[in-house]
Amino acid sequence: MVPSAFLFHFLFFFSLLISFSFSDSDSDSDSNSVGPTFHRVFPRPLIVEYPEFEAGLRCGAWRVAGEANNLGAWRTIPEECTEYVKEYMTGKGYAVDLEMVSKEAEEFARSVPLGSDGKDAWIFDIDETLLSNLPYYAAHGYGLEVFDHEKFNNWVEKGVAPAIEPSLKLYEDVLNLGFKVILLTGRSERHRSVTVDNLINAGFKEWDQLILRNSDDQGKRAVLYKSEKRSEMEKDGYRILGNSGDQWSDLLGSSVSVRSFKLPNPMYYIP
Amino acid sequence: MVPSAFLFHFLFFFSLLISFSFSDSDSDSDSNSVGPTFHRVFPRPLIVEYPEFEAGLRCGAWRVAGEANNLGAWRTIPEECTEYVKEYMTGKGYAVDLEMVSKEAEEFARSVPLGSDGKDAWIFDIDETLLSNLPYYAAHGYGLEVFDHEKFNNWVEKGVAPAIEPSLKLYEDVLNLGFKVILLTGRSERHRSVTVDNLINAGFKEWDQLILRNSDDQGKRAVLYKSEKRSEMEKDGYRILGNSGDQWSDLLGSSVSVRSFKLPNPMYYIP
After folding, report:
1. Residue B68 and residue A71: Cβ atoms within 8 Å?
2. Per CATH, is B95-262 categorized as 3.40.50.1000?
3. Is pLDDT larger for residue B54 or for residue B47?
4. In the 3-class helix/strand/coil scheme, how is chain B assigned residue by residue?
């Protein structure tokens, strides 16, 4: 999506700035360069300073750092990135990124040979992986507000989270290829019924297992809880070939899958 | 950096397109939506179709997928992303991303308590982590050409790769904090001397060990070679707290560090 009015405003003034900069030449010095130093091997870059552009670059770098698991634990998105995250989540950026991850996962799923014992498994997380809570987060600052368990639970209990379409396509593809689908979520066991209804209404069917946090799992860090559950799957004879999740804590730890697929999520972080 | 003439051209026509689209209203349908389906919970996004913008989105998604380790092995960058990768690498995008990773690594380095035995280690990869081969890749299509060992070795043997400045800053910071720095590179032992000279000329000093591939390591996949070397470090009593590399094969495998930092690199992939 093009961020409409904001982008139009921005591009218009940006074009003006660039025209000025062309006549003003490259008066900016190298002193604020942070990349490799080239001593004029390359032509000097034309640097246009523009606060919103700079914030966009920083917020883009912050988002990519999150996707690459470079960030420490964080509770809310950076305040200066409020508009950036909103534009990303409601625009084409998020959609195209979801498509890319789904396509890569599907290519892997098609390439890997499956056994004949029905024990090849693909794990899916639920929130921001199969189901989207974007309507909730849109009403709560896209991650700018500190996470509120009670409010979020009220949303979950409505059972109206829409499907993430590229994940639904991947889900159906891996089922058709013969994988066993295992759903592994941080949601509580008490939300089993509403979660099942929500999943089915959104188009997800035929899972092999749906694993939610039971009373023993409460308070455990996600990466430990999910590693323990994957370890149990392996003990049950499953070969975990693929794992799709929007948090690194869905994917790392022990008993990790052959290939992991990190779906984009700049709105919240679960350790 | 602003991609100068290209961006100016692009923004100018883009602004025109947006003005047209404002009058033309949102005639584009929802049919090509790939994200979550919201059934009008949100206002319909204004979608402007523009080939270069679309390619930019796809190439951005491809780059982020690489940083998130979602891509399978690849030999060259996608042809449509040639201009995108060039703009990213020579522009502010790469510089800001490098800064972000270095800053996060430094924050972690400052936060973690060190022992008094001098056995807290930080591992750095060399190519595209401490030293930049961008001058070489600029002459070889920024990753569009298939990797040529002989040509690349000729470049390495010149010993003129510049420092990646944010990594040099991190390097000095972790040394000052009391970490032992271990350099672990895929370069061959026969390049030890030129590598040492290049590192020192670029400002890197006081490493504890410089580990290169010896004859036993040739032909091993990087992820195995580096895991084995990290395992040896652990046997020598080192605690590997930080690890900085531009390839996931620098960071994954066994004996992984407490925190890993993935530097950006959309130009090549080492399995």
Report:
1. no
2. yes
3. B54
4. CCCHHHHHHHHHHHHHHHHHHHHHCCCCCHHHCCCECCCCCCCCCCCCCCHHHHHHHHHHHHHHHHHCCCCCCCCCCCHHHHHHHHHHHHCHHHHHHHHHHHHHHHHHHHHCCCCCCCCEEEEECCECCCECCHHHHHCCHHHCCCCCHHHHHHHHHHCCCCEEHHHHHHHHHHHHHCCEEEEEEEEEHHHHHHHHHHHHHHCCCCCCEEEEECHHHCCCCHHHHHHHHHHHHHHCCCEEEEEEECCHHHCCCCCCCCEEEECCCCCCCCC
